[in-house]
Specification:
Distance between the termini of chain B: 116 Å
Strand order of the largest sheet of chain B: 4-6-7-9-8
Helix content of chain A: 40-55%
Strand content of chain A: 15-25%
Oligomer: heterodimer
Number of helices of chain B: 37
Order of helices and strands of chain A: EHEHEHEHEH
Distance between the termini of chain A: 16 Å
Number of helices of chain A: 5
Shape of chain B: elongated
Shape of chain A: globular
CATH topology of chain A: Rossmann fold
Strand content of chain B: under 5%
CATH architecture of chain A: 3-Layer(aba) Sandwich
Largest sheet of chain B: 5 strands, mixed
Number of domains of chain A: 1
Structural class of chain A: alpha/beta
Number of strands of chain A: 5
Structural class of chain B: mainly alpha
């Protein structure tokens, strides 16, 4: 089964790198450049995983995360927040908004790969149960 | 009629009455029903000031000098009425320190010095002895006049007194037949009986005071009786008497202010008696030591002056009437008018009453003065010497109270004996008044040490000693020795020509000071020496710890109630039994036991259990001792049993400094607290500003770190991808490397701009201001951005007028502004046919530069913040195109520094395609990659570029408006230093330096 991932970021180059990495992991990759588009994409076809930037035009990452969590239909989506804001307060804010993980930019590509793999394994474990 | 035995009998009877009254008073006090609570008795006892000198002498003085007798009473009146607070302070101090005499007072103030108290005692004895003898002389003379008037005067005619004076050569009278001697003996017995009943000299002598008060009544009544008899018996009241006296030409001088002396003597005598009423040992005794209640002073303040007024009313009438009656034979017998007038009028009983009045005045003074002096002699002269003679082993003897009492009694006898001798050998040569004033002058020597002592903390022991010694020497030289000289003890040449003929040292004209009366002259020199020595030496010498403590306790007696006994200032300790033994030896077993018991009771202690006495108890014991033997000796004795010493002078200064300056400090504190409040408010405001700045700084750091992380993220990601995927195909590899390079450039730019911004904001930028040709500068800017422009295939048009005046600016900074704005425009142009136009319009004050694009414009609501740092409009413009968010803020900093203004002229977001048709007639064609754009308006005044995107405009002032511009620069310069971040959005048009 092919998992799908939605990459949400307003920096084209970062999107490009994440797109490349996720494709390499064998995932089905979609992209959104802002919060509203991201929510539309998710509503249209819920992905298994969202890599979500915080500072987004129109609707920020926290808000997107909260909306995902508020919708029971989308409950099983894993959300990993990516942000250039590295302070503890923001990290907690992200987790409080319902994110499963919080990765600080600039991130290590290997770390991203490991985390994403881990979440997808968890997800497959719960599905098989 | 008046026989010798009858007069003697009456005199003795009167004195016996005194004994009875004194005995009654003491008995009442023993029974606990004392008269001590009666302020009238207290005031009447102060009237001991009126001695036989008043009773007889005033009349004598008035007979030669008119109202010249008055100053002696004006002085005390002034002191009591106006300077009562001095007395009040002295009384409070005396009570606090259990002080026994004036010598004790002075010595206690100056570090409890034995030397000082001894010196004061010597001065007092030498100065007062003539005064006592004066009283004895008055008794003797009055007795002789009373007894022999009938036999001697009457045969020659009632009004000739000349025969009487020959009878007054006392030295020829055998001592045993001399009434004065008998009276002296009786007074000695009285003083011993009622002055030394108690060992505690600081305790009130109830009986003695009651007897003195009684005597004050008797002398007043006697004097009034004679006065009333003269005024209303012999004449028809004051008016009649005075007008009759006026008719006698020889008496005219008596109606002046006093003929024998000038105003100088008035002033001198007033000052002297002001001091004397405090400083005379007997006055100190009755006014201060015998005072039981400070409140009594309030009554005495008006009652005592009233007494003085009443007793003086009839002085002048009696004197005038005496002169009229006996002139010119009166001579120095004018002193006796009080007796001779009634005698001449055959009023024997009245004369006898007057004699008793005189006896009252004399005996009262003798008793009090002797008791006061004997206490001083015993405590301050004899005991210190005896205690120092080791051979006597006084320290080992048990009860010393009998010894002390014995010494006091002996002193009384000795003092009276010497006084009597003085009277026998020199008393004759002087009238009563002169001797009295000599004594006053001696007592006045204490005034500087006392006044300085209670109002000036700086006075030192050495200063007081110096002042007293110098003053005493000058007094002795200018007043005492001349009196010896006049009595024949010294050659009269001493007075006339000075010692060994040295004119400058003449005792009545010292150092050539002539033209003063004897008294003023003496007072001037003695006070000059006294006060000068006291102040000078006090300023030059240092106080020891004890002096410092006592000074503070005296001067601030009303201030430190807690510090009164200097409790905190003692470190010494002793065993209770040592202290008790010591005290009981001097104070007596019973009395000390009682005192210690009441002390223990008041503090809830058990005497039996007190082993080590604390400093409190040591102080108590010292006070107790001081009440008996004086502060100086008590201090020395306590020092023999107390281990350890008084604290160091530094610690004393510290403790006292705090206590005594409490008031001063509290004022300072109030002021300080006001200042503090103001400072607090300022601090609070500053703190709020700081917090705001801190918040801004935090935001800034967060933003900066965010801005830095973003390109860094791309760089790291692609670097790792390239590293981890060596088999990427070539195109992809090149593309990824291109991204890494671009993002690195962005990062570099960002860091440069952050630093540039910080530099601009701090005001430390170097500005190279020159005349700048805008056209040339704009072309340079376009050249710098040509690669960007070419890359994005942007149509760039320049509309630059030909005849532009130069502007005053920094050329590089000007170019930077254009470059930033161009880059901004290029980045936001994502239209199908991206166009950017740079247009310059010459205005009145300077140039207006506009840069327009046909991009999507600036979203509504963002216009406000477009020039703030890192406020990229999150519509994807900056983020997508790699902007730093610092370009516009830097532009604003530069433009505003150069005296111009920058703003977003248009932020339309409507359709970018709707570009009106038009020509570009005046566009410059020399720039790179520039072509006239169709659709640009030809209208010079309107924003010609109607591309629908954003238009940024800024203005800069001309260079040839040099002066204005320069001042504008200066202003902007200073403004940028003080308020580098001031938002100047509101500045309209081209404003040249007015804020």
């Amino acid at each position: 089964m092919t998992y799908s991932v939605l990459v949400v970021d307003d920096e084209p180059n970062i999107v490009l790198s994440l797109e490349f990495l996720m494709t390499q992991l064998g995932l089905d990759v979609r992209v959104a450049r802002d919060g509203e588009t991201a929510l539309d994409e998710i509503g249209r076809l819920p992905p298994d995983l969202v890599l979500l930037d915080v500072m987004l035009p129109k609707c920020d990452g926290y808000e997107v995360c909260r909306k995902i969590r508020a919708n029971p239909r989308l409950n099983r989506i894993k959300v990993v927040m990516l942000t250039a804001k590295g302070r503890d307060a923001e990290r907690e804010r992200g987790l409080a908004a319902g994110a499963d993980d919080y990765i600080t930019k600039p991130f290590s590509t290997r770390e991203i790969n490991e985390r994403v793999s881990l979440y997808l394994e968890e997800k497959s474990a719960t599905c098989s149960n | 009629m008046l026989t010798s035995w009858f007069i003697l009998l009456v005199s003795l009877g009167y004195l016996c009455l005194l004994f009875a009254i004194a005995y009654y008073g003491d008995k009442r006090a023993d029974e606990g029903r004392s008269f001590a609570g009666n302020p009238y008795i207290y005031t009447l006892s102060i009237a001991v000031f009126c001695t036989s000198w008043t009773f007889y002498g005033s009349v004598g003085r008035a007979a030669t000098d008119g109202i010249g007798f008055l100053p002696v009473y004006l002085g005390p009146t002034l002191t009591f009425a106006l300077w009562w607070f001095v007395l009040h302070k002295i009384i409070r101090i005396t009570k606090a320190h259990n002080i026994t005499s004036i010598a004790d007072f002075i010595s206690s103030r100056y570090g409890k010095s034995n030397l000082l108290s001894g010196l004061v005692t010597v001065i007092a004895v030498v100065g007062i002895m003539p005064y006592i003898s004066l009283q004895l002389k008055a008794v003797s003379t009055s007795f002789a006049v009373l007894l022999q008037y009938q036999d001697v005067v009457a045969p020659n005619g009632a009004n000739d007194l000349s025969a009487l004076s020959s009878l007054l050569t006392f030295s020829e009278v055998p001592i045993l037949r001399d009434t004065a001697f008998l009276v002296t003996l009786v007074l000695a017995i009285f003083s011993i009986l009622f002055g030394t009943r108690h060992i505690d000299a600081s305790e009130r002598h109830e009986g003695m005071v009651l007897a003195i008060a009684f005597e004050s009544v008797i002398k007043l009544l006697a004097f009034l009786a004679v006065g009333v008899f003269v005024t209303y018996g012999l004449y028809d009241g004051f008016g009649d008497l005075f007008s009759r006296a006026r008719e006698v030409p020889e008496m005219n001088p008596l109606f002046g202010q006093g003929t024998a002396s000038g105003y100088g003597e008035w002033v001198t005598t007033t000052i002297l008696s002001m001091a004397a009423v405090i400083c005379l040992p007997r006055q100190f005794q009755v006014t201060v030591v015998e005072n039981v209640d400070e409140g009594h002073l309030r009554k005495a303040v008006w009652l005592f002056p009233l007494y003085l007024l009443i007793i003086n009313i009839f002085v002048l009438p009696i004197a005038l009437s005496g002169v009229m009656m006996f002139s010119p034979s009166a001579g120095n017998l004018a002193d006796m008018f009080v007796l001779t007038i009634p005698l001449a009028e055959n009023q024997g009983t009245l004369a006898l009453f007057a004699f008793i009045g005189g006896l009252s005045a004399a005996s009262g003074m003798v008793i009090v003065a002797t008791i006061a002096l004997s206490t001083m002699v015993c405590n301050d002269l004899i005991m210190p010497v005896l205690l120092r003679i080791k051979r006597l082993r006084l320290n080992e003897r048990g009860d010393l109270t009998r010894l002390l009492l014995g010494i006091r009694r002996g002193s009384i006898l000795v003092i009276l004996f010497f006084s009597y001798s003085y009277f026998r050998f020199i008393g004759e040569s002087y009238t009563l008044t002169s001797i009295g004033l000599v004594s006053f002058a001696a007592a006045a020597q204490f005034a500087p040490a006392i006044a300085g002592g209670i109002f000036w903390k700086g006075g030192t022991r050495k200063g007081a000693l110096t002042g007293l010694v110098l003053g005493f020497i000058v007094w002795a030289y200018t007043l005492l020795m001349p009196s010896f000289s006049r009595s024949g003890w010294l050659p009269i040449e001493f007075v006339e020509f000075g010692p060994a003929g040295i004119e400058l040292l003449k005792p009545y004209a010292l150092f050539g000071l002539e033209g003063f009366d004897v008294l003023s002259h003496a007072l001037f020199w003695s006070m000059l020496a006294n006060v000068g020595g006291y102040v000078a030496v006090s300023l030059l010498s240092r106080q020891n710890a004890l002096e410092r403590i006592q000074a503070a306790l005296f001067v601030d007696v009303f201030l430190h109630s807690g510090l009164r006994d200097g409790h905190q200032l003692w470190r010494g300790t002793a065993t209770y039994s040592d202290l008790y033994d010591l005290v009981s030896r001097f104070v007596g077993e019973r009395r000390s036991l009682r005192a210690f018991q009441s002390y223990a009771r008041s503090r809830g202690l058990d005497l039996m259990r007190i082993g080590e006495a604390d400093s409190d108890l040591v102080n108590f014991a010292e006070r107790l001792l001081a009440g008996t033997i004086g502060a100086a000796t008590a201090r020395a004795l306590i020092g023999t049993v107390v281990k350890g010493e008084i604290v160091s002078i530094e610690e004393v200064m510290e403790v006292l400094g705090e206590a005594s300056q409490a008031i001063k400090y509290s004022h300072q504190l109030e002021e300080k607290s006001r200042e503090l409040e103001a400072a607090t408010a300022e601090l609070r405001a500053a703190n709020e500003r700081l917090q705001e700045l801190d918040r801004l700084k935090d935001d800034f750091l967060t933003t900066v770190s965010h801005e830095l992380r973003t390109p860094l993220t791309s760089i790291r990601s692609f670097s790792e991808i390239l590293f981890d995927h060596p088999k990427l195909d070539n195109d992809e590899r090149t593309r990824f490397l291109g991204i890494v390079i671009k993002e690195s450039e962005r990062l570099t730019r960002l860091i440069n701009q952050i630093l540039d911004m910080a530099k601009l904001e701090s005001g430390r930028t170097h500005w190279n201001i020159t005349d700048v040709d805008a056209r040339e500068a704009i072309r340079e800017a376009v050249a710098a951005t040509s690669s960007l422009i070419a890359e994005d295939k942007i149509d760039l048009s320049l509309r630059l007028p030909d005849d532009l005046r130069p502007i005053r600016a920094d050329q590089d900074r000007f170019i930077q502004v254009i470059v930033n704005l161009l880059a901004n425009a290029v980045k936001s142009c994502n239209a199908a046919d991206p166009r950017v136009e740079v247009r310059v319009v010459a205005q009145d004050g300077g140039l207006k530069v506009s840069i327009a694009d046909n991009g999507p414009g600036v979203p509504a609501g963002s216009e406000e913040h477009i020039f703030d740092k890192f406020q990229q409009v999150n519509d994807g413009r900056a983020g997508a195109t790699g902007g730093t968010g610092l370009g516009l803020p830097i532009c604003r900093q530069i433009v505003e520094y150069l005296g111009g203004e920058i703003w977003l002229e248009r932020s339309d977001t409507h359709d970018a395609e709707a570009i009106a048709a038009g020509s570009s007639s005046s566009s410059d064609s020399s720039g790179p990659a520039v072509s006239p754009l169709p659709g640009f308006s030809t209208d010079e005044d309107e924003a010609a570029f109607d591309g629908g995107g954003a238009v940024f405009s800024f203005t800069l002032p001309y260079g040839n408006a040099r002066q204005d511009h320069q001042s504008g620069l200066t202003q902007a310069d200073s403004a940028s230093e003080t308020e580098p971040q001031t938002n100047r959005h509101e500045r309209p048009g081209i404003s040249v330096g007015s804020d």
